[in-house]
């Protein structure tokens, strides 16, 4: 009897607690699904709305009221953008600077991060502090321009690559990831006679693929979206212009031409507005965002792992 009583007293509370926990889990799941659905709608709506505006006739877009679907379908906005003669060479330059800049930055940042992560390196604290100071103190626009000019990088493709070859934020992320790698793995390579370069390339580099993919995504987005450096250093050289800078010029031109067309249409002459600043802005956003949207799914699993593991000390 004592055994049966004790069994009942121990199993029944557990049974009731499981029921309560199961009901609580169901409530949590429902709330979680509702919240995530709302978050998905809030996140996707601006992009889908922009896509709808870009595929809508400009004369109709001015009226407003476009949400998730074009009211008057038209491809004139994309024709207007891609009819620019410089857009294709600018796209090639943007792809080239994104690929080359990402590879060089990731490789250089990884090597420096491995160096300052080694406890036997005497100057690692001093160099780390020197790098971090540059995140808070900047020489300013004019000194930077004078430095680029003295380095002979004006009207040069390499002005897109060398000034940002080491990113301090990327450096800290990679160093944190390397520091939480098992020291025994690195020591085993040295026991086998591997030097610093061989240890880095054969052991550390393969283990850092998640965080390197994360840094590569950060760098690629920066390189692809950058246009101000083109304006400062290569605005006089059309052959070195990038897609973002050309789209910026198209938008500025559309502001002038569309104002004239709108005034002509309002005068009762019956002119039709083919493009408008609103439609061109939406088209530019889609054209600039699509390549990053295509690349991101291939790096997503590495991106999540790199951010979570790199920020936790083992």
Automatic annotation (TrEMBL):
<keyword id="KW-0472">Membrane</keyword>
<keyword id="KW-1003">Cell membrane</keyword>
<dbReference type="GO" id="GO:0005886">
    <property type="term" value="C:plasma membrane"/>
</dbReference>
<feature type="transmembrane region" description="Helical">
    <location>
        <begin position="199"/>
        <end position="224"/>
    </location>
</feature>
<protein>
    <submittedName>
        <fullName>Carbohydrate ABC transporter permease</fullName>
    </submittedName>
</protein>
<feature type="domain" description="ABC transmembrane type-1">
    <location>
        <begin position="91"/>
        <end position="299"/>
    </location>
</feature>
<dbReference type="InterPro" id="IPR035906">
    <property type="entry name" value="MetI-like_sf"/>
</dbReference>
<feature type="transmembrane region" description="Helical">
    <location>
        <begin position="87"/>
        <end position="114"/>
    </location>
</feature>
<feature type="region of interest" description="Disordered">
    <location>
        <begin position="1"/>
        <end position="21"/>
    </location>
</feature>
<feature type="compositionally biased region" description="Polar residues">
    <location>
        <begin position="1"/>
        <end position="14"/>
    </location>
</feature>
<dbReference type="GO" id="GO:0055085">
    <property type="term" value="P:transmembrane transport"/>
</dbReference>
<feature type="transmembrane region" description="Helical">
    <location>
        <begin position="27"/>
        <end position="48"/>
    </location>
</feature>
<feature type="transmembrane region" description="Helical">
    <location>
        <begin position="278"/>
        <end position="299"/>
    </location>
</feature>
<dbReference type="Pfam" id="PF00528">
    <property type="entry name" value="BPD_transp_1"/>
</dbReference>
<keyword id="KW-1133">Transmembrane helix</keyword>
<keyword id="KW-0813">Transport</keyword>
<dbReference type="InterPro" id="IPR000515">
    <property type="entry name" value="MetI-like"/>
</dbReference>
<comment type="similarity">
    <text>Belongs to the binding-protein-dependent transport system permease family.</text>
</comment>
<feature type="transmembrane region" description="Helical">
    <location>
        <begin position="160"/>
        <end position="178"/>
    </location>
</feature>
<keyword id="KW-0812">Transmembrane</keyword>
<feature type="transmembrane region" description="Helical">
    <location>
        <begin position="126"/>
        <end position="148"/>
    </location>
</feature>
